[in-house]
Structure prediction request, 257 residues.
Amino acid sequence: MRVLVTGAAGLLGSEVVRLAEHEVVPTYYRVPVPGGVRMDVRERGEVEDVIRKVRPDGIIHAAFQQSDWATTADGTAHIARAARGTRIVFVSTDVVFGGGDQPYDEDAMPCPVTPYGAAKAAAETVVRAIDPTAVIARTSLIIGSDRTSSTERLVHALATGEPGALYTGNIRCPVHVTDLASALLELLVSDVRGAAHVAGPEAVTRLELGRLIAARDGLDPHALPFAPGPPSNVRLDGKRTQAILRTRLRPVSEFLA
Prediction:
């Protein structure tokens, strides 16, 4: 199986490439990767050229840019249009939801309250319309093992006195990058279609997450600055998806222990 991985220079994309047992063609935009093909997902013609030349059997679309609608929404549309007939796993996010008292399962309707959430929700709509058999894999905060994620970098910056704070009102379900990459590769060769929730099973605040990271890395967890921040309780209920996966999505208190 030949698999095209977009965003292969990123934390998640690079882990998918590392774990894949298939023939992999990684793509990148700014940072070259070994054996990679440069592709700007914002350029429809460029996307069509790459997919036509590579002729993948499957695509894991992990490329995004939070502050750029053209990359996150339009770029996904370009991938979906060019890849008709090819198995697609599109990596989406928990922030297609705005937050509420109850966890969101795979049947919940998106209700974004941020520009990034709106861009991902729009991308989900396009993918569903073009290919109802595609997987929309919603995840949460992605944590690595070597301080490579944005959350880990923030914790280390705050621990050294840089300005900022960890919010006690922001609740998410962090996932380890290796667990997530493994789950995406499983979904690629499965018969799953539509939304799949691939976040960790444990909800924590940003502050609780920061303290777990600090303790793991030998920092003082209680020295981290915090603030209430805007309330945002976004918990993904992934029990239905986890039941069909061999990959176990570990709780954050376990993989950061």
